[in-house]
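Lecture 7 notes: from sequence to structure.

We start with a single chain of 134 residues. Read the sequence below before looking at the structure.
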Amino acid sequence: MESSQVKAHRVSSQLLSLAGCLRVFLLPTLILTLAAMGRPVPRQILLCNVCPMQLKDKSCSNDFTSECQPNEHCGTSKGYFGSVHILTAQGCLTPDLCNSTHPLIYRGVNYNVTYRCCCSDQCNHLLAPTMHPC
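Now the structure, written as tokens:
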């Protein structure tokens, strides 16, 4: 018959062995899970058509694209002189510009530029009938 001291030692050793296994296998998983829970979900980086500000009648092939910053959307910019659409541009826009209008001096002329955004790759094609907002 085993003495109670030997049984206690054996049970204690088994518990320490189990605790060691838990520490080795579960602790890193628990730490990584908790760390990931506090992090923001990474945003999609969009690929957008790019065309510099120019007269709207000038051709701009959609051969040029750019990766936006994580906080940017694809967008188009349209410059108006009075109510006449004169200028057009494409590229990446920050969310604060989306659905806004701002004055711009381009080649010495004052324009009002409207900014429209969309949130999928190359959604800012100039010939798109409608851009679906974000």
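Residues 8-36 have pLDDT under 50 and may be disordered. Keep this in mind for problem set 3.
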